[in-house]
Design brief:
By secondary structure, the chain is of the alpha+beta class. It has five helices and three strands, in the order H-E-E-E-H-H-H-H. Helix content is 49%, strand content 18%. The N and C termini lie far apart (47 Å).
């Protein structure tokens, strides 16, 4: 099995069996975005525990890339300090921009989405949940006065 095939399987697994696709009552971050060009819709919800992510979830509909990306995002950020979430967002955005990526360990399964770069029209699908998370974290900090 080639690396591309393996990555494709990871994406399809997250699409078919999404992790954390559910509501999250009492979320400190609750924001929705959509991509009107393709119809993807994502709501990202995060409970902040101290200075980090206590729990994360998403809801939405759309293509396999947007849904798998949101699933991987919520799985990856759980338990992560918000500063590390900021760094992960920047690393993911860099990867989607075709820039040099950090070690695979830093991104984990998210590396499976690296192949999306070959299809520029799909990049917006992959970053939709990340845009939503980034705006949500910024709003949370603003509201918290941090």
């Amino acid at each position: 099995m080639s690396l591309d095939d393996l990555y494709r399987e990871v994406i399809l697994d997250h699409y078919r069996n999404p992790r954390n696709k559910r509501g999250l009552p009492g979320a400190d971050i609750d924001l929705a975005h959509n991509n009107p060009l393709c119809g993807d819709e994502i709501s990202v919800r995060v409970k902040v525990d101290g200075e980090g992510v206590g729990d994360a979830a998403f809801e939405g509909q759309g293509c396999s890339i947007s849904q798998a990306s949101a699933s991987m995002l919520t799985e990856r950020i759980k338990g992560m300090p918000l500063e590390d979430v900021d760094e992960l967002i920047m690393a993911f955005r860099g990867m989607m921009a075709g820039k040099e990526t950090p070690e695979d360990e830093a991104l984990g399964d998210l590396v499976a989405l690296k192949g999306v770069v070959k299809y520029p029209v799909r990049i917006k699908c992959a970053v939709l949940a990340w845009d939503t998370l980034q705006e949500g974290v910024e709003q949370y900090r603003k509201d918290a006065g941090a």
